[in-house]
Amino acid sequence: MSDHFDVVVVGGGPAGYASALYGAAAGLNVAMIEKSRVGGTCLHVGCIPAKELLETAAVFRAVSHADTFGITTSEPTVDFSVTQTRKQKVIDTLTSGLTGLLKHRKVTVFDGIGSIFSVGDTKVVNISGGASGDVQVSGDNLIIAAGSVPRTIPGFDVDGTSIVTSDELLAVPELPGSAAVIGGGAIGIEFASMMADLGTKVTVLEAMPKIIPGVDPAAARVVERSLKGRGIDIRTGVMVQGHEDVAGQKRVTFGDGESVDVDMIVLSIGRRPYADLLGLDAVGVPLDERGFVPVDENCRTSVPGVWAVGDIIATAQLAHVGFAEGMVAIRDILGEDPQPVDYQNVPWCIYCHPEVAFAGHTEDSAKEAGFDIVTSTHKFNGNGRAMIVGETDGLVKVIAEKNADGTAGRILGVHMVGPWVTEQLGQGYLAINWEATVDEVASFIQPHPTMSELFGETVMALTGRGLHG
Predict the structure, then answer these.
(1) Crossing angle for the helix pair 425-433 and 453-462, nearest 10 degrees?
(2) If residue 442 lies in a helix (H) or strand (E), which one and from where to where?
(3) How is residue 437 annotated by DSSP?
(4) Radius of gyration (Cα) for the chain, nearest Å?
(5) How far apart are CA 239 and CA 252, in angstroms?
(6) pLDDT digits (tens, 9 = 90+) for 281-320
(7) Which of 254, 269, 284 is a domain's end point?
(8) Residue 131 and residue 225 in one domain
(9) Would the N or C end of the chain have less CB density within 10 A of its end CB?
(10) What pLDDT is recorded for position 364?
(11) d(CA 467, CA 284)
(12) Residue 2: pLDDT band by 50, 70, 90 thresholds?
């Protein structure tokens, strides 16, 4: 058996490596087990490569509309091999940096599949199938951070070319001429937006009544209008029935006998927890009916000394939420009485065009929680910076608690759709989590001209003394 550790982390994605780095920074002796490259889904087949391809789409849009700025160019074309090379360089650079940071923090990284062998007073994990060979590691504490994999649909066997998940789409040598994106959630809409901007004819098939469920309806309508204006066919409230090969394409049937012929089917129906190889049943760590590991507010499982974080638990599948959960678990191990993650108020960002960003309550969830509310909405079409960059489609909406005297009080939710809003959400997120009132936030100066002025203006309007609206 190898050296004994204070903490053994199974999984090297965002939740796992955050646990390892944070624990090592606190002086703990940490081992981390990863079956692939450190960084997990987010770095290799998720956040980073997806946003790199979306940035390629943004550059293509900018060049295509350069004439509106008086810049004359030839019609742009896409060499997707260059795009993929650039994407991989970004991934490799970040992976190298993360590997170096783990080494600097003296985290011992094992390459292989971790299967939990024992969860008694000493936790034991078997490692196999990787460069580290067949070894065992032991620790006083165990953090399960095995992540997730894309969900699939029965009858839609992934072949990597005509039927793909996000994993395969992010590595294709060239984009298809046409595609059906099954699933209109955040991931599906990001892919639809990127592919359509780069020349693919896209159809989105979503079972729910509207795309990107959970997003404020006003923001979702802005996105849907933009996508349709760029030629994307969006079908909501339809169930996919099946597919067949027709003249070298895939004919996807849906709804009441409707169909569409496409070159590629993109399955984008969410991700499932990846507990397949962990051996949890044998050691008494339970799974719920959906395959998630149940935990309490400090990410403790029902087995003493075992925590679970990230996509393996039934919380928001976001890298930054995984970071936060990893830190909660480590602080709990250290006996520091951590502040649990406030899942109602975590920041969400969707990088389609136009972007979406939000935190806190929607109108409906605030009312369901018993709040009497007041709202303020301002559009980007009156914002000077938005006009300068030529991106005026979108809005900022702020939801506040209504005081007994009818005035607006604490900020409960901030919802944005439009240019660069994923970079603007920070002050709204801070306002919500600091339980700031509209009067407190309105007193802060917003630099001019900036996109962020619109948030300040929207809050100021709730005081009854807005400047521009």
Answers:
(1) 40
(2) helix 438-442
(3) B
(4) 24
(5) 11
(6) 989 999 999 999 999 999 999 999 999 999 999 999 999 9
(7) 269
(8) no
(9) N
(10) 94
(11) 61
(12) low
Report the pLDDT value the prediction gives residue 468, as an integer from 0 to 100: 79
Distance from C-alpha of 415 to C-alpha of 218, rounded to nearest angstrom: 9
Domain around 220: 163-269
What gap in Å lies between CA 57 and CA 351, rounded to an integer? 11
pLDDT category at 432 given cuts 50, 70, 90 is: very high
Q: Which pLDDT score, from 0 to 100, does residue 467 have?
A: 85
Rounded to 10 deg, the angle between the 186-197 and 47-64 helix axes is 40
Burial (CB count <10 Å: 0-12, 13-18, 19+), residue 81: exposed
CB atoms within 10 A of CB 416: 30
Band the pLDDT of 1: cuts 50, 70, 90.
very low
Residue carrying the six token digits 């009067």: 439
Tokens 């509106």: give the residue.
68
Q: Which of 243, 320, 378, 448 is catalytic?
A: 448
Q: Are residues 233 and 93 in the same domain?
A: no
Average of per-residue pLDDT across 103-121: 96
CA–CA gap between residue 356 and residue 426 (Å, rounded): 13
Is residue 469 predicted with pLDDT exceeding 80?
no
Which structure tokens are listed for 90? 């970004």
Length of the chain: 469
CATH number where 365 lies? 3.30.390.30
Q: Are 210 and 236 in contact (CB under 8 A)?
A: yes
264 and 276 in a single domain? The answer is no
Chosen domain end from 218, 248, 269: 269
Q: What is the CATH number of the domain that holds 291?
A: 3.50.50.60
Distance CA 399, CA 431 (A): 12
378 and 457 Cβ atoms separated by less than 8 Å: yes
Q: Which two tokens stand for residue 374?
A: 């007041």
- Percent with pLDDT over 70 in the chain: 99
| CA pair distance 413, 216, nearest whole angstrom | 10
Per-residue pLDDT, averaged over 213-236, amounts to 96
Residue 373 inside a domain? The answer is yes
The 10s digit of each residue's pLDDT in 354-371 is 999 999 999 999 999 999
3-state secondary structure 20-82: HHHHHHCCCCEEEEECCCCCHHHHHHCHHHHHHHHHHHHHHHHHHCHHHHCCCCCCCCCCHHH
Q: Is 448 an annotated catalytic residue?
A: yes
How far is residue 240's CA from residue 88's CA, in Å, rounded to a whole number?
Answer: 33
Indicate whether 97 and 178 sit together in one domain: no
- Looking at residue 212, the DSSP 8-state letter turns out to be S
Residues 313 and 233 in one domain: no
Rounded to the nearest 5 percent, the helix, strand and coil shares of the chain are: 35, 25, 40
Beta strands 135-144; 306-308: pairing state: parallel
